[in-house]
Amino acid sequence: MIKLLSYPISVIYFIFFGITLVVFHPIQWLCLNVFGYNAHKQSVSILNFFLLRCSNILGTRFTFNNPHHISTNQPLIIVANHQSLTDIPPIIWYMRKHHPKFISKIELGKGIPSVLII
């Protein structure tokens, strides 16, 4: 029964995921090219908030517990075990004060809305 429910829920997820990327792509472009880098940074954070909400459609729940007081005025290296939809949006949203960046091959971002190479 759960497997039967997973198919329509997956379709609903992909619709919301696609709409989120298509809506935020022009917002990110506008923020970066008109309002500057800080506006772009905020639009990326909001995009990742909505990507987390899209994952909630699938039943995914995120918790972030940081008992350490990490300073925002010094460099910080975050090492994730892999870069995927389960790593990147939560790291960007919950660590947005630390301004995380990711390294990947340039080919991975070509032709995908809302993936800007800076």
How does the major sheet shape up? none
> Which band does the percent of strand residues land in?
under 5%
Secondary structural class: mainly alpha
Mean pLDDT: 84
Helix proportion:
40-55%
Question: Distance between the terminal alpha carbons, to the nearest Å?
Answer: 45 Å
| Discrete helix count | 3
Low-confidence parts lasting 5 or more residues at pLDDT below 50? none
User: What's the number of extended β-strand segments?
Assistant: 0
What is the H-and-E element order? HHH
Domains counted in the coordinates: how many?
A: 1
Radius of gyration: 16 Å
Shape: globular
Structure description:
The chain has 118 residues and is an all-alpha fold. It has one domain. Helix content is 53%, strand content 0%. It has 3 helices and no strands. Helix 1 runs antiparallel to helix 2 and helix 2 crosses helix 3. It is globular. The N and C termini lie far apart (45 Å).
Helices and strands in order:
Elements: H1 2-35, H2 37-57, H3 88-94
Features:
118 residues, mainly alpha, 3 helices, 53% helix
Brief write-up:
The chain is mostly helical and 118 residues long. Helices cover 53% and strands 0% of the residues.
